[in-house]
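Q: Second attempt. The first request was missing the SMILES, so the protein and zinc ion are both included now.
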Amino acid sequence: MQESSTSWVVDLLSRLIQVDTTNPPGNETPAAKLLAEELEGRGVEYKLLESAPGRGNIVAWAESREPGPSLLLLSHLDVVPARAEEWSVDPFSGAVKDGFVWGRGALDDKLSVAVMLRVFLDLAESRGFKGRLIYAATADEEMGGRMGAGWLVEKHPELVRADYVLNEGGGFEVPGKRSVFLVQTAEKGVYWFRLKFKGRPGHASMPKSGDNALLKAAEAAVRLGRRSPPVSLNQHVKLFVERVLESRGVPSPFSKLLSAKPLVSLVPRLAGESAPMLDAMLRNTLAPTVARGGDKVNVIPSSCELSVDCRLLPGYGEEWVRSYVLGALRGLDYELEFIHRDQATESPLSTPLYAAIERAVSSEVPGALVSPYMSTGGTDSRFFRLAFGSAAYGFVPVRADVPLSELLKMVHGVDERVSVRNVEFCYKLTRRVLEVLFPGVTRGSRSRAHP
Ligand SMILES: [Zn+2]
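A: Got both inputs this time. The predicted holo structure:
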């Protein structure tokens, strides 16, 4: 049974990869139609909803007569671009070879599109659960989700509102003496802004004939780029560090390590190549990324713009940015304009879903630990945390059968692939999580066989 479920998921994953949903432009509808074919005739309700022509989202649901929790299985259909010439296989071939499924989306996020559909159908067909189970595979996540999950939350809240959301963004195994499986429980906010500097034009053969705006922008870039905002340790990161230490055999008690200062000094030693990630989990960050100013080599530029990618921890917002920049750029005249704002979000850790993940992990991987984790980038979970207060977790479990650094390179990178063993693992563990959450479900059985 398990074997046939795995091959069903592998086959669907392969076919999904063959539908090119590169975003932009997305064109997710053909992939949503493929899922609609799988849902047809299974006794579940579903809707294919386009947020714009070609931008397909699919939502399916199953409800029991008896009340119980509502859970949304969330994934996205779009993928980031792939440059075929850099890959060793056609990125849209969906080839299954050497024990792997290859192609853009194999990990991000068509693995969960396929796994979650199988798990959804298993539970819906078993009818053993009490509550409401929702499946949504959405458009546009890679470009911010406003034509996908964000659109569904706004236009069709009745379809996707749920107490719990299981989404991408976590689930990978960090190997150690004991493995740690990460659950994304929080994500930083995005506060991109632009600084405008003004000067006075002049002839560049006489630099002092003008007031060079480029120099002001350069000064600002250096100041913002070189200094680090103070450390601010939240519960997600604190527990994450504790669990990672525990997994590496660092003895208890940890309490003395957990005041911010020693922790920061430990970061590079503990984290190795993940030090930049851990550093970004400990504080707000600002990275100057784009400078535009001047258009003639012999003219002193009278204006210059500097764009900054700023990421904030939960609890921080626009006001913090304004006052931090004011302090950092003392003595410089500038105008600050936000170009993108998405607040940080977090979910509580003491929920039945989190507990279900812990129980499922310990039954599938004895001895493994589960840790909360705050991602430095955003996912669609934020829409559900903000609009409905859902407990949303990033948990698409995959084992570290390639080094984590390799795995992270494949996502949005070259030769993205997932092992068939990991497809099986992901399916089994995701299903186990739901069996624990919905105790009425009979383990290992389905009422109807699937082809
Ligand atoms: Zn993704």
